[in-house]
Write a sequence for this structure.
């Protein structure tokens, strides 16, 4: 928006000047119309007055063409091309190419320089900036040695604008250094104003704020001098924007209000000024004043345009600001009355940038209304748009909205995750603003220091000149004393000598003042050093905060704390893995046009990450019950039993931690982990069941590799829901065999059976275990899908006599991983 306004400013600042020059140039240069009035922006909406007289203008040129010769003919061909540019592009190109051929054939430097400017303009209008640049450079090289200096100025400005479109800001400033003395020599104030405006744009892109503000002020002054109030208005708006971005709202308000003095308050051009003033008052929380200026801007838009559809975007842009004011005032229903029409309009146009602009505001309005689910939905939509359209700046608002919404619906872990992301982005933005302001003030101090040094050098030169004059006067006095010995002459000489001594005293005083000014320079240098030290202290403070955080984390110790940390570790790891999986899925969507082989590799990696997330599951109830069992043994003075139980429990925890980071482990390690788990359960339930683990003789338990913790959920299910509900002693058997290319793991118990377990509903069976569901998902995610079958066992009378579970693992996969 700001760039478009800048282009319009440059265009209007030259248009009025060129129309005046046209009357004289039509006689001197055969109706040559400079294209600069149209070179810096599209004029589709502003060329109607020009088009109205185009046909008569073209007819007059065609009548003059047969009688014209040499330079006059080249000028007319260029003007025919310019006249046809808005009527017929092909005809326009025909005439300019004809002019180029004739100028080249005649070796007419003046005509060739002018034609090259036209060709460069047409290329730039079609966004072919790389082709336009050499054409302007060639025109300048030729025109410098001709009498068309006024065209040289145009070519310089066009070349600067081409560098701007190519983001070549350093080259843009080099061209400005060459152009400025040429334009100043011609005392061309209008073009000098355009030059300064372009220089300000370059310094803005280079983050040199002090120079940018200086040349914007110069441009505003020169435009006012030539009566181009629109140019002064736009310069004031740009200065206000710069201070607004630096959060210098008081200064920004002054420049925005000054801009309104350069335009008729009843004209549409003043709309932007009223809108900007409203923005400042909203930041200053002066909401009544903000609403006044926003409503005034809306009134100007609607009164000065008969085409409502044409100004719809500007109207909505102001209305959304009114909605923001109501949002900050806590009038959420009024705010939504402005936000939702804005969202619907730009959803129909599929304008992602506008949608991203309004979604966080709608979400915050629903937060104010305590409709947290609606706010959460808008936050998720905003985050999805940020990811799919790479709108990085809006991530901060999405994270903040999601964090607040999730906190309100009692999901603190997810809220904390998004709050951390929002804090990181906010800190980076604030640090960037601090650095920008620091750079601005350093540049200002350096500029003042340079000016002071120049002033001191001038004073030194003046003192040196005065000293030389005194020496010459002393020599003159000496000659007079030699030539004239009269007493009167001696008295006069003595008087003059006294005057010279007085002047020497004055010089000495001036030198003292000079030394005082030097001390001021030293103070400025010390001030700069203090600014640098302040920046270093800020960095050290950030480092100290990080060190304190690391020391706090390192202070957590103890056996009970270890168990709690373990549970926390499992939960955090699961969330991290889920987050990494989401990031990977996002990368897969972005890279879906890459080769099929790379996609398959990324998908396999995503599956492995999901496997790691599922493997990290561990039943926290089991850990809690084991710790309670240890506590029970200690309280009953069963120290040997407690010691033995604690040893086995620590071995089991260590194995689970070691195996959780591995994709696969040897079958022997899995059996060892199972044996430890069953023995702990056997002791905890006072040996109410016996168990056995059998591995077929043709199976190499150390050579075959399976996913870790794959069988434990089935064993846990058999103990808790089968054997523990049995009145007499139970029996648990685990048989591992191989059938062809598959590995069969059979888990059999003689418990009460599934039907009786569901009917009993005792406290032990009421716990909802997720182990079976997780294991089913893990089996499906294997490269060759695994499976399990549950078989109900009955005796001869048909009564439930236990349960058998057969888990099938593809042996091919196990053999390949073992290899």
């Amino acid at each position: 928006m700001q760039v478009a306004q800048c282009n319009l400013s440059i265009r209007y600042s030259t248009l009025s000047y060129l129309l005046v020059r046209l009357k004289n140039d039509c006689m001197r240069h055969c109706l040559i119309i400079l294209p600069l009035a149209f070179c810096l922006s599209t004029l589709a909406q502003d060329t109607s007055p020009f088009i109205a007289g185009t046909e008569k203008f073209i007819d007059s040129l065609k009548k003059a063409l047969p009688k014209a010769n040499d330079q006059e003919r080249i000028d007319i061909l260029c003007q025919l091309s310019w006249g046809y540019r808005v009527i017929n592009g092909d005809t326009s190109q025909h005439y300019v190419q004809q002019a180029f051929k004739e100028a080249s054939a005649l070796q007419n430097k003046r005509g060739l320089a002018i034609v090259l400017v036209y060709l460069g303009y047409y290329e730039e209008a079609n966004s072919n900036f790389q082709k336009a640049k050499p054409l302007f450079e060639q025109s300048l090289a030729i025109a410098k040695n001709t009498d068309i200096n006024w065209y040289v100025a145009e070519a310089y400005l066009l070349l600067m604008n081409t560098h701007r479109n190519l983001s070549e800001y350093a080259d843009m400033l080099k061209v400005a250094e060459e152009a400025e003395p040429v334009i100043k020599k011609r005392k061309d104030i209008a073009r000098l104003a355009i030059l300064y405006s372009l220089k300000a744009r370059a310094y803005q892109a280079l983050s040199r704020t002090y120079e940018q503000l200086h040349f914007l002020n110069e441009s505003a002054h020169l435009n006012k001098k030539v009566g181009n109030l629109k140019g002064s208005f736009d310069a004031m708006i740009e200065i206000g924007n710069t201070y607004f971005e630096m959060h210098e709202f008081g200064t920004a308000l002054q420049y925005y209000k000054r801009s309104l003095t350069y335009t008729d308050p009843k004209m549409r051009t003043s709309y932007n000024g009223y809108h900007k003033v409203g923005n400042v008052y909203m930041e200053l929380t002066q909401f009544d004043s903000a609403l006044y200026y926003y409503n005034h801007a809306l009134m100007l838009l609607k009164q000065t345009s008969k085409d409502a559809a044409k100004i719809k975007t500007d109207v909505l842009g102001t209305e959304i600001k009114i909605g923001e004011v109501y949002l900050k005032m806590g009038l959420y229903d009024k705010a939504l009355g402005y936000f939702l029409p804005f969202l619907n309009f730009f959803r129909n146009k599929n304008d992602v940038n506008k949608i991203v602009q309004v979604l966080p505001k709608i979400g915050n309005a629903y937060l104010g209304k305590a409709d947290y689910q609606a706010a959460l939905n808008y936050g998720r939509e905003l985050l999805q748009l940020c990811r799919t359209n790479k709108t990085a700046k809006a991530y901060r608002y999405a994270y903040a909205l999601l964090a607040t919404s999730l906190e309100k619906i009692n999901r603190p872990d997810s809220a904390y995750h998004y709050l951390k992301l929002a804090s990181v982005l906010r800190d980076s933005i604030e640090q960037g603003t601090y650095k920008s302001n620091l750079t601005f003030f350093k540049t200002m101090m350096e500029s003042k220091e340079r000016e002071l040094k120049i002033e001191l050098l001038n004073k030194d030169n003046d003192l040196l000149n005065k000293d030389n004059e005194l020496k010459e006067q002393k020599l003159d006095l000496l000659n007079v004393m030699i030539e004239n010995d009269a007493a009167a002459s001696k008295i006069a000489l003595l008087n003059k000598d006294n005057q010279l001594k007085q002047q020497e005293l004055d010089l000495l005083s001036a030198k003292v003042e000079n030394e005082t000014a030097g001390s001021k320079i030293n103070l400025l240098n010390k001030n700069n050093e203090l600014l640098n030290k302040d920046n270093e202290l800020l960095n050290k403070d950030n480092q100290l905060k990080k060190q304190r955080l690391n020391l706090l984390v390192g202070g957590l110790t103890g056996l009970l704390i270890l168990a709690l940390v373990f549970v926390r570790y499992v939960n955090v790891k699961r969330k991290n893995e889920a987050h990494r999986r989401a990031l990977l899925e996002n990368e897969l969507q972005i890279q879906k046009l890459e080769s099929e082989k790379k996609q398959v590799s990324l998908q396999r990696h995503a599956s492995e990450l999901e496997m790691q997330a599922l493997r990290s599951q561990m039943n926290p109830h089991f850990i809690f019950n084991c710790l309670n069992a240890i506590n029970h043994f200690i309280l009953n003075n069963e120290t040997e039993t407690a010691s033995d139980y604690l040893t086995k429990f620590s071995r089991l925890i260590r194995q689970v931690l070691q195996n959780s980071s591995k994709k696969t482990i040897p079958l022997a390690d899995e059996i060892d982990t199972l044996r430890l788990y069953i023995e702990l359960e056997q002791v905890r339930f006072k040996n109410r069941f016996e168990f056995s683990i059998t591995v077929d003789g043709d199976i190499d338990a150390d050579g075959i590799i399976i996913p870790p913790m794959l069988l434990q959920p089935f064993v846990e299910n058999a103990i808790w829901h089968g054997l523990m509900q049995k009145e007499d002693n139970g029996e648990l058997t685990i048989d591992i065999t191989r059938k062809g290319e598959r590995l069969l793991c059979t888990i059999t118990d003689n418990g009460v059976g599934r039907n009786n377990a569901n009917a009993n509903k005792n406290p032990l069976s009421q716990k909802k275990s997720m182990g079976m569901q997780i294991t089913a998902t893990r089996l499906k995610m294997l490269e060759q899908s695994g499976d399990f079958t549950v078989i109900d066992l009955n005796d001869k009378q048909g009564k439930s006599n236990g349960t058998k579970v057969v888990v099938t693992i593809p042996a091919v996969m196990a053999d390949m991983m073992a290899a």
User: Anything to note?
Assistant: Residues 1-52, 430-442, 763-768 have pLDDT under 50 and may be disordered. Strands lie at 665-666, 689-695, 705-706, 730-739, 742-749, 787-794, 800-810. The longest strand covers residues 800-810.
